[in-house]
Design a protein that fits this description.
Elements lengths: L2 H13 L17 H5 L2 H13 L2 E10 L2 E10 L3 E7 L7 H12 L2 E8 L6 H13 L2 E6 H9 L1 H9 L2
Helix pairs in contact: 3-6
């Protein structure tokens, strides 16, 4: 028996027989780098820093009973609190979040939905109608626009510097 087989036999005797999950032997699924690395938080940061020129993930405290709690505003400018969300089910609470942040800060509430599939789906429709009913401004940008804006930001910095 060679050294590797002896070592594996020793480890198996100590650990006992275990079944390896089938997922270890399946073919890996690959995603494009854009899909796997650019999530809602990253897109919100791109919008806030490069387009809205605001502060990302600002924290505000409030009390409920005897406890102190905090919320984080996705993007806060001098006059607006902007709740950023993808066109997914997880963004259905955007109206409530924008209104509550506006109540705490005294700024105008805004919802920005990032369109990832190029169509107006059920979640965008529900959020837009609820925002309209509540008097909250509703905006939308495409995911690809934000990625391109970030990728070309260095070109705009040259123009601003007068080069």
């Amino acid at each position: 028996m060679n050294g590797i087989n002896l070592l594996l036999t020793f480890v198996n005797e100590i650990a006992g027989p275990r079944r390896m999950p089938a997922s270890l032997f399946s073919q890996p699924t690959y995603q494009t780098p854009e899909r796997s690395t650019v999530n809602e938080v990253a897109l919100a940061a791109v919008f806030c820093a490069f387009i809205a020129e605001g502060e990302v993930e600002t924290r505000h405290g409030y009390s409920a009973g005897y406890d102190l709690h905090f919320i984080r505003v996705d993007c806060e400018t001098a006059s607006e609190v902007i709740e950023v969300g993808l066109d997914k089910r997880s963004s259905l609470d955007s109206v409530q979040q924008a209104l509550f942040a506006a109540e705490l800060t005294g700024k105008a509430p805004v919802i920005l939905i990032i369109d990832s599939d190029g169509r107006i789906g059920p979640y965008e429709t529900r959020i837009a109608r609820a925002a309209n009913r509540a008097g909250v401004e509703y905006r939308t940008l495409t995911r690809d626009f934000l990625i391109r804006w970030r990728m070309t930001s260095w070109l705009r910095s040259y123009r601003q510097a007068g080069l």
